[in-house]
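Subject: sequence -> structure tokens, single chain

Hey, anyone have a minute? Need the predicted structure for the following. Not urgent.
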Amino acid sequence: MKSVALLAGFLLLVPMAQGAIDAYPFTDEAMESRYKALIEELRCPQCLNTNLAGSDAMIAQDLRREVHRMLLAGNSDAEILDFMHQRYGDFILYEPRVTSRTWLLWYGPLILLLAAGAVAALVVRRGAARANDIPDVDKDRLRRLLKD
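Reply:
Had a minute. Here:
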């Protein structure tokens, strides 16, 4: 009785496991490798930091189907990436393009690093200048203390 219930449970899980597998026919190995590279390069719009290849979201399934359709239609990788970028914006690309909207994303860390270096140099320079700005009275007093 227990084994029948276990078997029934496994049989109920089989349709769910089959639904998660995308099996698309390709004309050759090169097209299949292009497909795999594209779905690994594109981010799922619904998931956080998951590419289309690793996502089980419905939109990811639709986008994988769309990539497959566009490959069969003869679109180049650049055309497919442009289509996805126009439709979903910069978020869909793991490496957003350098545009006027994304320059801060690309160059912001470098600007912050340079600004931090300039501030650190300024603080060190001011500290050294303050150490040399000891009044003559204090210098004489310091010399006397060091002699004793």
